[in-house]
Amino acid sequence: MYIISQFNDSFKVPPNKLEHIIVSIIDSINTKYQNKMIEGKGIGVTLYDIVSMTTPTIAIGTGDVYYEVVFNFIIFSPFQGELIEGRVLRSLPSGIQVTLSFTDSVFIDQCYFPANSDFDEDEQLWYWNYDGTKLPLYINSTIRFKVHHVIMKKQESVKPVVVPQTTLMSNNLKQQKDEKGEKPNEEKKDIKKEETKTDEQTQQDFNQEENEEEKLPLRIYGRINESGLGLTTWWS
C-alpha cells in the first residue's frame, strides 16, 4: 500500500526564507510531490526524510538560493485485490466516491455493490437491503473496499526541476568575483536580458506543469460486493 522512494530534485529558497532553509525546503518538497502522481508509482503522501543537500547555488540579481536535495518520499501505491479503508465522500446514482484523506480518486461503481442495493433519489443515498433491513451508506462513514483495478497516467507524473544555469553562480564563483571587485548587479545588460528571458521560460514551464497536475492522474476503482466489505458498522 505504501512504499518509500528516493528522489533528487532542486528547490529554490528565496532571500526572505534563508533563516529557515530546512523548513522552506520541506514545504517546497511537500507542495510539489504531495497528492501528485510520482513516476507512475502512485500518489505522493508526505516527505519521509532528507538524505543530503548540495552546496547552495545563488541566483544572480534575485538572491534566490538553489539546493539540490536527495530525499525519501512516502508514496501510496495500491494494487489489485488490496483491502483499504476510507470515508464515503459523495453518493451518486452511478455509485459512490471515497476519500482517503490525501486523495479523492476512489470510485465504487454501483455494479460492484452488494446485491439488492438501491439508490434513494430523495435522500441521495445508497442503501443495501439486507434480510429486510435497509443499511445506508452514509456520507463520511468509514468504508472498507477491495481494489478492483487501478489506472495511472504516467505522462502526468511530477518531474524534477531543471535549474537554469545561466542565472546561477556558485558560492565559489561569487567569492572569486567579490575578490576581483565584481558584483552580480554589475553584469552587462545583454546578459540580464538573457537571464530574464530564461526566468520567463522557466515560469511558463512551471505553469504548464501545474495545469497538468490539476488533472486527476490516478483512478482507483473498488468493490464492496463481498463479505466483510462495505461500511465497517455493517460488520461490527
From TrEMBL:
* Keywords, in A-Z order: DNA-directed RNA polymerase, Transcription
Q: Where is the RNA polymerase III subunit Rpc25 domain?
A: 82-188
In Pfam terms, one family for this protein is RNA_pol_Rbc25
Give positions of region: Disordered. 169-217
List compositional bias (Basic and acidic residues) regions by residue number. 175-200
Domain of life, per lineage: Eukaryota
Query: Where are the membrane-spanning stretches?
Result: none
Cell compartment(s), UniProt: Nucleus
Give the family this protein belongs to, as stated in its UniProt record.
Belongs to the eukaryotic RPB7/RPC8 RNA polymerase subunit family.
**Protein known as:** RNA polymerase III subunit Rpc25 domain-containing protein
Organism from which the protein derives: Entamoeba nuttalli
Taxonomic lineage is:
Eukaryota, Amoebozoa, Evosea, Archamoebae, Mastigamoebida
